[in-house]
Amino acid sequence: MPSELAEVQVRPGCEGDLPALTELYNHYVRETPITFDTAPFTPEERRPWLLSHPIDGPHRLMVATGPDPGQRILGYATSSPFRPKPAYGTSVETTVYVAADAGGRGVGRLLYKALFDALAGENLHRAYAGITRPNEASTRLHARFGFRYVGTYREVGYKFGRYWDVAWYEKEL
């Protein structure tokens, strides 16, 4: 696996990635409580999301591809506005999604490293991450990057016939 991971490329996302990114995300919509979206998206419906993550600035989209010949998208990481009010402008919410068959191979680590490296020059103070419980892999990834637990919203989302808790983590930038 380590040699395979060395061939994974991480780069900013672009409009050409939209169909693959939408397909990857829709897996989580349909199959998991990790996102609280409940209906799959079309690429056109996801276009505003993609366009809200330009190549520079505090709101980024990083994409991991390869090592297969088609450079398939293995995952992505984003930093997005934490809340819409102006005083929250130096805070971002971060997230990582990895293709179902690419989990546990270090792709999430590569994505977060690239994302936080890209954000290092931005005027940001804190990053936040909400993790639907249980999700030990995501909890470990966030701890590895210095996120610390700050609290839990109990039964805040309803999906698949049950309520889910979301644990919140923060990281100083």
What does it look like?
Helix 4 links the parallel strand 4 (91-98) and strand 5. It is globular and about 45 Å long. The chain has helices spanning 2-6, 18-31, 43-51, 107-119, 136-144; strands at residues 9-12, 61-65, 73-81, 91-98, 126-132, 148-159, 162-172. A 7-stranded mixed β-sheet has the order 1-2-3-4-5-7-6, sandwiched between helices. The mean pLDDT is 94. It has 173 residues and is of the alpha+beta class.
What layout of secondary structure does this protein have?
Elements: H1 2-6, E1 9-12, H2 18-31, H3 43-51, E2 61-65, E3 73-81, E4 91-98, H4 107-119, E5 126-132, H5 136-144, E6 148-159, E7 162-172
Parallel strand pairs: 4-5
Antiparallel strand pairs: 1-2, 2-3, 3-4, 5-7, 6-7
Helix pairs in contact: 2-3
List the total number of helices: 5
Q: Structural class, from secondary structure content?
A: alpha+beta
Largest sheet: 7 strands, mixed
Question: How do the strands of the widest beta sheet line up side by side?
Answer: 1-2-3-4-5-7-6
Short description:
The protein has 173 residues and is an alpha+beta fold. The protein is 29% helix and 32% strand. Pfam families: Acetyltransf_4.
Please describe the structure with a list of short key phrases separated by commas or semicolons.
single chain, 173 residues, alpha+beta, 7-stranded mixed β-sheet, 5 helices, 29% helix, GNAT_dom, GNAT family N-acetyltransferase, acyltransferase
